[in-house]
Amino acid sequence: MTEDKKYPFIKDDDSRIAALHSYHILDTAEEKDFDDLTTLASVICQTPIALVSLVDKDRQWFKSHKGLAATETPREYSFCAHGIAKPGELFIVPDATTDDRFKDNPLVTGYPDIVFYAGKPLINNQGFALGSLCVIDQQKRELSAEQINALTVLAKQVTDKLELRRKLIEITATEKKQAMLNEELIAANVKLVLSNDQLEQTNHELSTTQLKLQQAVETGNLEELRKNDFIGMISHELKTPLTSLSGYIQLLQTKAKTDDKFTSLALGKSGLQVKKMITMITGFLNVSRLESGKIVLHKQTFRLDELIENVIEDISLTELGHVIINEPCVPIYVDADLDKIGNVISNLVSNAIKYSPNGTDIRIHCTSTEGMVQVSVEDKGMGIAPADLEHLFERYYRVEGEHTQLISGFGIGLYLCAEIVGIHKGRIWAESTVGQGSTFHFSLPLA
Ligand code: ADP
pLDDT, tens digit, for every residue of 137-178? Predict the structure, then answer.
């Protein structure tokens, strides 16, 4: 017996109780299947009472209670709690009134006046005794070998029913989950198709624009349709469906995560590609805005050192090939457009990644002097020849070469960086040695 509880110690009782709870059977309604088995047990053993008793933490609860009004009793009065302590055996109490363990038990001294008890533990497929199938009489008696045999067979039937019941619950839950997942996938698919429609619509608008352009050339009105407006318009139209596509890919990714590794991998890659396209298109859009003087700065005072940290954190989420080292610096306050300066930093770090081999370091550091802060991004990449160095910040300029051919880009990133830094009254420049690496610097006035 345990010290504070008046029922026998059961090894690993917490796991046994957890197993019992996994059947989700406690406090459920009566079921004919179980009632049939207690009826059979009481008829065969010729006892007025037969129970399917499940031993919970502090009580025994009856799934079926033939010949007894109660549906549960405290565990300390439970005969079954004794029986399951030796789960392999049939537990028999021939006369409870003379048995030291039970003679003061209120179920013996009062209703239902138990005298005879025989219980066969219900052992589940993990080997836990969940409770027992028991027969009870109010007079002394014995069971024949046939009756004991029948009680054992019936107890096995009860356990089988319990397992079956649990399997059914599990299957229904899985089916429900599947059905929900399917519905969500269908909904996401529908939305993807809608995005596609939008893309097609954009294509249509594009060919209309082409037609207009042609007409303009034919009628000599080309000046009216400036190339810049054209690029701006297309970029804008492409960005909307791409953004929603990216959103749906993310949505699908969260749905696919649990069981389908291939799908989540493929979706992850699609997501990255779409993001790349969005970045490119945003670049074009910004070029067109710049050229038509539509760039507006939204200035605020913020900590540049914190912005650098955030940008690097973002990039590090997807970039695993390089070691990005952010050298610590003091708090630096600037009065600038946070998003646009963020784009400049992100562009320089992305270029450092793009144009240097995997496994090399990328170092970012800040220094401030004479009212200006200087941010530097240093890589150990392919480097840039002096002849190219002076053109880097020109619109659509890309270095020609075997290396750069394989790397995608349109030569607008640095041009935009230079424009943004310029309207902030800062400066941008690069130093480089071919084959050793490059360092890009930009400066901004301190707040
Ligand atoms: P993109 O990378 O899209 O071509 P950018 O304007 O960002 O356009 O860069 C212009 C060119 O400058 C690139 O094509 C590349 O040749 C060169 N470049 C930029 N950053 C680096 C770097 N860190 N190392 C070597 N070359 C670089």
Answer: 999 999 999 999 999 999 999 999 999 988 888 888 888 888
CATH 3.30.450.40, the chain: domain bounds: 13-170
Q: Cα of 313 to ligand 1 centre, how many Å? A: 22
- Reported as half-sphere exposure (CB side, CA atoms, 13 A), residue 314 has a value of 13
Q: Please state the atom number of ligand 1 nearest to the C-alpha of residue 356.
A: 24
Pick the CATH number of 299-445 from 1.10.1200.10, 1.10.150.240, 3.30.565.10, 3.40.630.30: 3.30.565.10
Distance 88 CA to ligand 1 centre (A): 77
Count the helix, strand and coil residues of the chain and give each as a percent rounded to the nearest 5: 50, 20, 30
Judging by DSSP bridges, how do beta strands 372-379 and 437-445 pair with one another?
A: antiparallel
**Torsion angle (degrees, nearest 10) of CA 368, 369, 370, 372:** -30
| DSSP codes joined into one string, 137-169 | ESS-----HHHHHHHHHHHHHHHHHHHHHHHHH
Which ligand 1 atom lies nearest to the CA of residue 414? 6
One of 1.20.1440.170, 3.30.450.40, 3.40.50.300, 1.20.1250.20 is the CATH number of 13-170, namely: 3.30.450.40
- pLDDT above 70 covers a percentage of the chain that reads 89
Q: How far is the CA of 370 from the centre of ligand 1 (A)?
A: 30
Distance between Cα 411 and ligand 1 center (Å): 7
- What residue's CA is closest to ligand 1, atom 3? 409
How does pLDDT run across 158-169, given as a tens digit for each residue? Answer: 999 999 988 888
Q: Rounded CA gap, 32 and 70, in Å?
A: 18
Residues with CB under 6 A from ligand 1: 351-352, 355, 379, 381-382, 384, 392, 397-399, 404, 409-415, 438
Tens-place pLDDT, residues 248-292 = 888 888 777 667 788 888 888 898 888 888 888 888 888 777 777
- The pair of three-digit structure tokens given for residue 391, joined into one six-digit string: 């053109």
Global confidence as pTM: 0.51
Residue bearing the CA closest to ligand 1, atom 19: 351
